[in-house]
Amino acid sequence: MPRTLSDMAVEVLTTAEGRQKTALSRRHAAAWFAARRGDAAAIEIGRADPPLHPARPAAPQLLSPRDVPRRRPGSPAGRIALLHAVAHIELNAVDLHWDIIARFAEIPMPMGFYDDWVKAADEESKHFNLMCDCLEELGSHYGALPAHAGMWRAAEDTAEDIMGRLAVVPMVLEARGLDVTPGMIDVFRKAGLTSPVAALETIYAEEVSHVAYGSKWFHFLCGRHELDPKEVFHTLVRRYFHSTLKPPFNEEKRAEAGLPPDFYWPLTENEADANPA
Ligand SMILES: [Fe+2]
Ligand SMILES: [Fe+2]
């Protein structure tokens, strides 16, 4: 049994197989919360060296986004491809949440920071398992199709900047999930597939809190360093996120997660267009 939370994080990050990774992640989360409730000995945050890239299973094959074949979402193959893409996102999200814990362990943070990311990692683990169950119900499985190779880029780009990490991962990438998930739920509802609808509704409900954790701890660090949150957010997203943000936005869920419109709307244009000389 690893002794510190950082050791637990590294153990998850270095486990390759998806279901094994998520089972371990859920066990470590349960152990952490048992200790936090006082039902077990306290667990230190500790220090450990997370790998630059988490371990990945032999399949799926990872391709550059432009080489991942597109399928019509209205077809059975398209629906399987959609679930497969979400499973891949969830598996990366498990690693992203454990990575922020181990990567920045030398920065003193309140215990609530660790509680939030352990809870998020636990939920992503559940989400991955739900997507795998749905794929298997439709006669497929995670690994049957190629997947995007670029998902860890945001983690690499922000490996030395905790505020950049919070800005790009929960507040840009996970917030994007809030924008697109209702449309995905519709695809499966129209096809009369109840398991994916239920699974995606669980994911949709729980992802709001992941974005909210990002916003909460981003604002916390801005307060610590006496920085203007909106300005720093714009600077960091422009530095680390290699694209503009794409509307339409789910303004209601973003607001619920603590992301006001003046954080994301200015990032729909690049700086040169926004500030013409
Ligand atoms: Fe998720
Ligand atoms: Fe998430």
- Strand-and-helix sequence, N→C? HHEHHEHHHHHHH
- Low-confidence parts: none
**CATH class annotation:** Mainly Alpha
Mind describing the biggest β-sheet? Answer: 2 strands, parallel
Distance between the termini: 59 Å
Helix content: 55-70%
- Which CATH architecture would you pick? Up-down Bundle
CATH superfamily: Ferritin, core subunit, four-helix bundle
Overall pLDDT level:
95
As for the CATH topology, it is Ferritin
Question: Could you say how many structural domains there are in total?
Answer: 1
**What fraction of residues sit in β-strands?**
under 5%
- Strand order in space, largest sheet: 1-2
Number of helices: 11
Compute the CA-based radius of gyration: 19 Å
Structural class: mainly alpha
Bound small-molecule species: fe (ii) ion
Number of DSSP strand runs: 2
Overall 3D shape: globular
InterPro entries: DUF455 (IPR007402), Ferritin-like_SF (IPR009078), UCP012318 (IPR011197)
Pfam families: DUF455
Protein name: Ferritin-like domain-containing protein
Region (Disordered): 48-73
Question: How is this structure best summarized?
Answer:
With 277 residues, the protein is mostly helical.
